[in-house]
Amino acid sequence: MPSPSLQTTHPPRVLFPPEKQDTVTEVIAGMPLSLDCKAFFGYSGENKQPIVYWMKGEKFVEELAGHIKESEVRILKEHLGEREVQLSLIFDAVEEADLDNYTCYVENHIGRRSGSVFLRKKYMYRLELAGGLGIILLLLGVLTAFYKCYNLEIVLCYRRHFGSDETEDDNKEYDAYLYYTKVDFNSLCRMNDDEETLALEILPDVLENQYGYKLFIPDRDLIPSSKAVYHSRCLTGNAGTRLKVVTPALTPGPSEVCAESKKEVHAFV
To answer: What does each C-alpha distance from 47 to 1, 11, 14, 37, 79 come to in angstroms?
Structure first.
């Protein structure tokens, strides 16, 4: 048993919540909560239960609503009559009316001390929602940019794997008729090499070789003759879709010759 000379001459100390300091705890309405009060008691020479309790304002816990209660006092550490103890204030489910100031008191025969904690409502998921919204907007931006760059491939891939075959009952020999202007009136209106490469190489490679469409291309599939235009007009009726490659000959220009060629092309179409 400790010597009487070791008896404390001070009141107990509140370890948590800190004394003379504003402590705020954010809580979520409807969720359970436990407020822990920790205190240190010096050797008093008496073998008594430490005096520690919670209050809300001027009310003891026994006067509060039934969903609020105190736990038993737990002794966390003990040495030579000195004790570190804990008392928890337990909420079964936090209510709006519980958002207030709570004070833990500890006392002995010398004096009393206290520490307080204020319960404040937590606006849950504020940061999480902002981050989630940012990620969603970023994904939408990436998907939009991807669709802008590859919309044709996406549509064709979808139609190839999930769409119905519209060419089975249309009695068409070709799936699409691909036409473009290729005129040369005194070198005033010409189709450049890039446009011809697109019409004769790139589009057939993608649509025919990769997606299985059957294209009719006049320069490739039509034997040149004086009745080429007539035959082309007839063949357009055997194609399910018309694909037009827009070239400078189809855009407004100052040349009357080009204007005349445009009229012929539009009449042909």
So the answer is: 11, 16, 20, 21, 13
For residue 52, count other CB atoms closer than 10 A to its CB: 20
Pick from 82, 98, 96, 101: which is nearest to 39 by CA? 82
CA distance readout (Å), 208 to 194, 200, 246: 19, 11, 20
> How many beta carbons lie within 10 A of that of residue 96, not counting itself?
8
For the entire predicted model, the pTM comes to 0.49
- Measured distance between the N- and C-terminal CA atoms of the chain, rounded to whole angstroms: 112
* pLDDT tens digits for range 135-183: 999 999 999 998 888 887 787 777 777 766 555 555 667 777 776 666 5
177-215, pLDDT tens digit by residue? 776 666 554 444 444 567 778 777 887 887 788 777 787
- What one-letter code names the amino acid at 81? G
Q: What is the DSSP letter of 210?
A: I
Instruction: Give Cα 268 distance to the centre of its chain.
Output: 52
Report the SS3 class of residue 83. strand
- The strand pairing partners of 114, in sequence order, are 105
